[in-house]
Design brief:
Shape: globular
Oligomer: single chain
Strand order of the largest sheet: 1-2
Strand content: under 5%
Number of strands: 2
Number of helices: 20
Low-confidence stretches: 1-16, 18-27, 440-452
Distance between the termini: 56 Å
Length: 452
């Protein structure tokens, strides 16, 4: 019996070693893929359904604005962006038309004349956004190395947590269509820069903000000629299509529409003036042409006039700072996500429009930051998630009270707006603090970037 003990101990040791190795591998891999995809399904089902019971009609734009635009275009009426000026770039109409087609297919499930413009279209929009997110999610987790990557899986989980915290606004606005395009484009920046540039350009023709990601890539990465040519080709195809449809007069109508807008109550720059509603200096009014609540009163027009030039200066300054750090020897790999987040935060902070869906713009840069420079993303990630929770608390939870200029919702909105500025400052600080490396170190890093 005693002779058997060493043998048993010898056999047990490799077994324990294998268990330890398997445990280490599991920890490095992160959550199993099945758990992540389950989280994807649960998050999208939750966000798609919670809007039906929340106040302030968080799905209102989808059913009362997008659906009539699509119905008119398909029914021989006005085509926004083509026959008349429009607040969005023209490709934004494409997902609205696709959702309208889907709604007709599922309409029999929602009997009643009102259903075509309400339930069926909302469900169709949910399906479209979920399908596009699923493609982006799959790209994030694709490939043998990526499927084993704890960092990739952590970024995927962050996406789902952010979606839940931001709520219905994360799905039921046109901005949701651009998120997976930005994610896939970011994943391909180092291996397929021309394709990434094309995706960013398509996104910019839907909602302008992905252009900020293109600016960051153009400033920091090699292959600039390929990126410019790719963006030019996409733009040429879009413009040619619009000209052939007779929309040349309204080609840049979205820019003129934006320039003519007032100061929306949720805009970051409106925060001090919004507090003045408490003493009757300013007031909240509804613009029926733009369909937004805006501020009126002393100083409002001045702030609105200053924000756009400030945005341009901020974008140029951040791009120049990042380029200077790159030429000093900093890694493009580490500079890129912080630069993207800083640029997007500037677009939000210096915007006359403060729509809650704008906050979703920070999601793609944040996920890319997880992948490219994980150790430095913890604080920005926490702040963005808090920002999202505050955004949902304001809209739709207490939005009706905000319109009544009550102090508590104004305080919540102010905290959210301050967070946007803080996130911008932290991203800029990350650019400044990106370590400068010698040429030999940078050369060793390049193969890793290409494997991404």
């Amino acid at each position: 019996m005693s002779g058997a003990e060493p043998t048993g101990a010898t056999r047990a040791e490799p077994t324990r070693g294998a268990v330890r190795r398997a445990s280490t591998t599991l920890r490095r891999a992160g959550l199993p893929l099945t758990v992540l995809w389950l989280a994807f399904v649960v998050a999208h089902l939750y966000v798609a359904t919670i809007g039906w019971v929340m106040p302030a009609l968080p799905m209102g734009d989808t059913v009362f604005v997008y659906e009539p635009w699509a119905r008119n275009a398909l029914g021989g009426g006005a085509i926004v962006g083509v026959t008349e000026s429009w607040v969005y770039p023209q490709l934004a109409l494409v997902p609205m038309l696709i959702a309208q087609g889907l709604s007709q297919l599922i309409h029999p499930l929602f009997p009643g004349s009102y259903a075509v413009g309400s339930a069926s279209y909302v469900v169709a929009w949910s399906i479209l956004v979920t399908a596009l997110d699923a493609v982006g999610f799959a790209f994030l987790l694709r490939g043998t190395a990526a499927r084993r990557s704890r960092i990739r899986r952590g970024a995927a989980l962050l996406w789902m947590v952010a979606l839940v915290l931001l709520g219905p606004i994360a799905m039921f606005r046109i901005d949701a269509i651009t998120v997976p395009l930005a994610v896939i484009g970011g994943l391909w920046l180092f291996s397929r820069p021309a394709v990434a540039s094309a995706l960013f350009t398509i996104g910019a023709w839907i909602k302008i903000w992905p252009g900020a990601l293109f600016v960051a890539a153009l400033a920091l990465l090699r292959g600039r000629i390929r990126m410019i040519v790719s963006a030019a080709i996409v733009t040429f195809v879009v413009v040619l299509g619009l000209v052939l449809l007779g929309g040349s007069k309204n080609l840049l109508g979205f820019l003129s529409q934006m320039s003519g807008r007032g100061l929306q109550i949720e805009a970051v720059g409106a925060t001090p003036l919004l507090w003045l509603t408490q003493v009757g200096v300013t007031r909240i009014q509804y613009d029926r042409q733009i369909l937004t609540f805006q501020l009126a009163g002393p100083g409002v027009d001045l702030v609105a006039a200053l924000l756009t030039p400030l945005m341009v200066v901020g974008v140029v300054a951040v791009a120049a700072l990042a380029l200077w750090k790159l030429r000093a020897g900093a890694s493009a790999w580490r500079l890129l996500p912080a630069t993207m987040l800083a640029l997007v935060a500037i677009l939000i902070a210096c915007n006359k429009v403060g729509s809650p869906q704008f906050q979703v713009w920070m999601l793609a840069p944040l996920m890319l930051w997880c992948l490219f420079d994980g150790p430095r993303v913890r604080i920005p990630a926490i702040l963005v998630l808090v920002d999202y929770a505050l955004t949902q608390a304001v809209y739709p939870v207490v939005y009706d009270h905000l319109l009544a200029a009550e102090a508590l919702p104004i305080a919540l909105l102010s905290a959210r707006n301050i967070l946007v500025v803080v996130i911008c400052v932290i991203a800029i600080r990350a650019i400044v603090r990106t370590p400068v490396r010698r040429a030999s170190s940078l050369a060793l890093e390049l193969p890793e970037t290409r494997r991404s």
